[in-house]
Every structure is written in C-alpha cells, then in structure tokens.
Amino acid sequence: MPTPHPTLKLIFDALAFAAEKHRDQRRKNAEAFPYINHPIAVAHVLIHDGGISDPVAICAALLHDTLEDTATTGEEIEHRFGPAIGRVVREVTDDKNLSKPERKRLQVAQSSGLSGSAKLVKLADKICNLRDMADAPPVGWPLARRQEYFDWAKAVVDGLRGVNPRLEAAFDQAYGRRPV
Length: 180
Ligand code: ZN
Known about the structure:
By secondary structure, the chain is mainly alpha-helical. It has one domain (6-175): Hypothetical protein af1432, CATH 1.10.3210.10. Helix content is 64%, strand content 0%. The chain has ten helices and no strands. It has helices at residues 6-21, 37-48, 55-63, 66-69, 74-81, 83-91, 100-110, 116-135, 143-158, 165-175. Helix 1 (6-21) packs parallel to helix 3 (55-63) and helix 9 (143-158) packs antiparallel against helix 10 (165-175). The structure holds zinc ion. Residues 38, 64-65, 125 line the site of zinc ion.
C-alpha cells in the first residue's frame, strides 16, 4: 500500500492540531458555528479561490488563529511544523499586549511589509471574515460597526495587493457586499 504523501500528512496534522486547540471555541455569529470552520474556510479560499498549493501557506492558514486565540505558543508550532510555518503564523498574529485599536492600526501599517505567504493568509482571512460579516454577522453588531469592519479590512488588504490577483478579486467581490 502506498504511504500518504508527506504534504498531505503535514496538512492534516495542522488541521488536527488546530481542531484540538479550537475545540471549545465558537464563532460570534447567531448560530455559533464551531470555530474550526473559520481556519478551514481560510485554507479552502487559498486553494480554491487563489489556486495556491504551497503547503506552508495552507498549513499557516489552518493554524493562523492558534497563537492569538488559544494557549498555543510559537515554539510549539515551530517544533511540530517547522520554522517556515511558524514564522508565517507569527507574522499574522496580533500582539495581544496591545489595545484593540492599536492592533487594528498596526495591521494596516504593517500589511505591506509581510512575507508573501503571510500576505496570502491575511488576504484569505479577510475574504472569509467579510463573507461571514455579510452572511452570518456577529451577534449585536450594529450596521455602523459592520461597515467600519469592511473599511478596515479593505485598508489592510490595500497593503497586501500584488501578491495574488485571484484572491484580490475575491476580496473585492466580498467587499462589494458591504452592508448599507
Ligand atoms: Zn482568522
């Protein structure tokens, strides 16, 4: 029997790791979807909308919220998935010691300086977040807050442009559904 391809093993290891880390978390929409649906959607967008096959970007997409939203450490990710994936996950992680407005400001200020793989993950993340914001918004977010989120995401993505035209087009389409 042929053994599984190493890339397939790596990707499913990242998926299983993320599922375990996010196992008790739910999204903020009314139906409280399982949190893991989000990283899966981000990896799916990379592959299906962006045509990306780079396992570093795909694994980093699956793991992209583990540092920020669970007790996972960067060392843990690096030890299990290697320095390249670890670096990208760190790049797309906000510093939780900073205030929310400062973190949001830094995402805009720093997006153009990210590595290519980090830009891809961030683009796919923002696409998914806008799609969710349009289809299944967080409970209790008034119109102005949702509009502000769309505009902030666009400001971040404007710093990511030039890395993948297909993902940019998918983002622009998602932004086209800005609530009015
Ligand atoms: Zn995310």
